[in-house]
Amino acid sequence: MKKFTALFLAMILAAGLIVGCGGGSSEEEGGSDEATTAKVIDVDLTNEEYAFGVDKDQPELLEQANAFIAKILEDGTFDEICDRYFGGGEPVAVQSAKLDSSKDQLVVATNAAFEPFEYTQGEDYYGIDMEIAALFAEELGQELVIQNMDFDAVCLSVGQHKCDIAMAGLTINEEREEMVTFTDPYYQASQRLIVPSTDTSFDDCADADAVAAKLGELESSDSIGVQQGTTGQYYVEGDAEWGFEGLPAKCVPYKNGSLAVQDMLQGKIQYVIIDAAPAAAITESINEMQ
Fold it and tell me: In sequence order, which residues have a C-beta less than 8 Å from that of residue 30 and are 6 or more positions away?
């Protein structure tokens, strides 16, 4: 994961990071020669549960998915998968077959821009959800087909019966339940704030209320980046069903969190709010390049 992410972000962020450092020679201008990187504020802004979204017309698949989740949580398989992404293990590549209606296939909808849950390297898929998908398809005796799409289309594709199941770091909520039936949860998640390493505004914040209070002091001219369609967007914009009051800053949606952090380091936005695991993966990879 680290090797791939560093190479990928090196290509899309190289120019941006130079700009984010302030341009000219620091030795000539008397400034620091260290590049501005990103840091995650170690406070959970939300408490969420991830689950998979199943086609409402496939109750048998829902039962099979719940039984499989219970199995991998109990026998340690899930912990082994997570260790490959959080504990320095070696991620396993997952291949997708071509969609063929004549074959017995499990068609999975995902957004492969949400490391460490789903991402790509070449033609292969990687991530916690992708490894689970491969094992689940094997358990069912089916061929795995992965359909990669924008995040806000994932549940919709299942609701329209174009895919069997959504596996994309999905937080359970009522809006998505209109399109899919959620499995039992398999992962506890939260939102985290990413800031430039030079920003000390939140260093003394001990809890979510303290961070929220600081964010509440922002103005409409300020902006916060989020991954489009995720909980972070609801948190910034406000949503009654989610219980979020919203923030005064402008919400700027991106296709993935890496692009949001890129713009933050270039000074185009102030902060980024995204799920904790992707936040850690993105910032670690950026900082390793410095």
Answer: none
Cα 18 to its chain centre, rounded Å, is 25
**Residue 48 phi, psi (nearest 5):** -135, 165
Name the residue type at position 209.
Answer: D
pLDDT in tens, 134-160: 999 999 999 999 999 999 999 999 999
Among the residues of the chain, which ranges form H helices? Answer: 2-20, 26-29, 59-74, 77-86, 128-140, 151-159, 174-177, 208-215, 231-237, 257-265, 276-288
Does the pTM surpass 0.90? The reply is no
Q: What angle do CA 263, 119, 50 make, to 5 degrees?
A: 95
What angle do helix axes 276-288 and 257-265 make, rounded to 10 degrees? 50
The amino acid at residue 163 is C
Query: 147 pairs with which residues across the strands?
Result: 109
Strand order of the β-sheet with 113-114 is: 113-114, 118-121, 124-126
**Angle between helix 257-265 and helix 2-20 axes, rounded to 10 deg:** 30
- What is the DSSP track for 216-239? TT--TT-EEEEETTSHHHHHHH-B
Angle between helices 59-74 and 77-86 (to 10 degrees): 70
Q: What is the pLDDT of residues 244-289, one digit of tens each?
A: 999 999 999 999 998 999 899 999 999 999 999 999 988 887 777 7
Q: How long is the chain? A: 290
Q: At 182, is the secondary structure helix, strand, or coil?
A: strand
